[in-house]
Design a protein that fits this description.
Layout lengths: L1 H48 L19 E2 L4 E8 L6 E9 L6 E9 L4 E8 L4 E2 L3 E10 L5 E11 L6 H25 L6 H25 L3 H18 L6
Parallel strand pairs: 1-8
Antiparallel strand pairs: 2-5, 3-4, 3-7, 6-7, 7-8
Length: 248
């Protein structure tokens, strides 16, 4: 009888320990995810307030800045232009980039054949850093058609490391965040007693926060900085509600 009792106690302690490990792994993953959201959303937000001349034209949705850079990186800012007409189409393109001295500007004209799509790119590096750790870009396009004029801004956070590979660092952290969240959820649900109200509440929070952070990362990568920041605020709000001292 005593042996069965000791065995049951060991199982309970083992499950409790693994559940805690799962929760810690999940929490670290969520923290990394929020850092990635901020690393993508904050530069885009700052770019809207930078010293570019903006006219309030419709958003140029194809503009894209590097997800992350280091001091040694040289990465492209890209924009995709398309001609949906059945005749040649001429684009005027004005690209502006931040700098520690003054904004640099590049003007060019692009001719597109009917149905043709072309991607333009401009390389940026440490000479474009301003406000400490940011690189900003603004691109304006004007087409001689009903497509009219469009503009948009974007930004990139620069990690001050003397190595190359900002995008690799970003996606490596993203991989670790996904792995940590998956392992954490697996350990939590496998070693939890789901009949306990506190465990059920905590489990619901973990599922919800994982979904919110995943949406935020996708919004950040797609340059939807407003929605990305909303997910961070939502994550912080729900965390403050669900993580009032509970037993883990």
């Amino acid at each position: 009888m005593a042996q069965h009792s000791q065995e049951g106690t060991r199982v309970i302690h083992r499950n409790l320990s693994l559940r805690r490990v799962g929760f810690i792994s999940f929490s670290i993953a969520i923290f990394l995810g929020i850092l990635l959201i901020l690393a993508r959303a904050m530069p885009d937000l700052e770019s809207t307030m930078y010293g570019f001349i903006k006219y309030g034209y419709p958003r140029l949705t194809s503009l894209s800045c590097p997800v992350l850079m280091t001091l040694q990186d040289r990465e492209p800012v890209t924009v995709r232009l398309r001609n949906p007409l059945d005749k040649n189409l001429s684009y005027y393109v004005n690209a502006q980039f931040s700098s520690g001295v003054m904004i640099s500007t590049i003007d060019q004209r692009v001719e597109l054949q009917p149905g043709e799509t072309k991607t333009l790119s401009w390389e940026v590096g440490k000479e474009n850093i301003d406000l400490g750790n940011f690189i900003f870009a603004r691109v304006f396009t004007s087409a001689a058609s009903s497509l009219g004029m469009r503009e948009s801004t974007c930004g990139t956070f620069v990690v001050k490391l003397p190595v190359r590979g900002g995008p690799v660092i970003f996606y490596a952290i993203l991989f670790l965040a996904v792995l940590g969240a998956a392992v954490g959820l697996l350990l939590w649900f496998r070693h939890s007693e789901m009949s306990q109200p506190d465990v059920i509440s905590q489990s619901l929070w973990m599922r919800f926060i994982a979904m919110v952070v995943a949406v935020g990362i996708m919004a950040g990568i797609l340059n939807l900085w407003f929605f990305a920041i909303l997910t961070v605020l939502l994550a912080l709000l729900t965390t403050s509600v669900f993580l009032i001292p509970r037993k883990i």
